[in-house]
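Colleagues,

For the teaching module next term, I've prepared a clean inverse folding example: a structure given as tokens, and then the sequence designed for it. I'd like students to try predicting residues themselves before seeing the answer, so please don't circulate the second half yet.
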């Protein structure tokens, strides 16, 4: 899914990332809201967002960053360094895929209701 599909209330935007740039502004990665998200890490709060005209937008909220990782938008984040918590989590869909790979695709997995 695209970031725009996951975060429809944001409208169109471009994410500007410092990942892998070595601090060189010319190497900053850009990804539009029509594309999937960059890998979400504990540095998610450092990402800059701009609108189609280049105007600076508010950075991603904890809720929005969590949604990009597959969490519910009302997840009750708590404690210190929430961006690091978000970057460290294993999304439920990935966890399920890992368990299925480990124990077999046909295994019955309990689901939270």
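(Answer key — instructors only)
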């Amino acid at each position: 899914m695209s970031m725009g599909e996951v975060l429809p209330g944001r409208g169109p935007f471009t994410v500007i990332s410092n990942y892998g740039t070595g601090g060189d502004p010319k190497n900053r990665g850009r990804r539009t809201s029509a594309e999937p998200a960059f890998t979400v890490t504990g540095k998610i709060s450092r990402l800059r967002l701009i609108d189609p005209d280049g105007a600076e937008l508010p950075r991603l909220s904890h809720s929005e960053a969590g949604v990009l990782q597959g969490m519910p938008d009302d997840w009750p984040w708590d404690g210190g360094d929430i961006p690091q918590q978000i970057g460290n989590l294993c999304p439920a869909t990935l966890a399920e895929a890992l368990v299925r790979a480990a124990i077999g695709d046909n295994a019955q997995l309990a689901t939270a209701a």
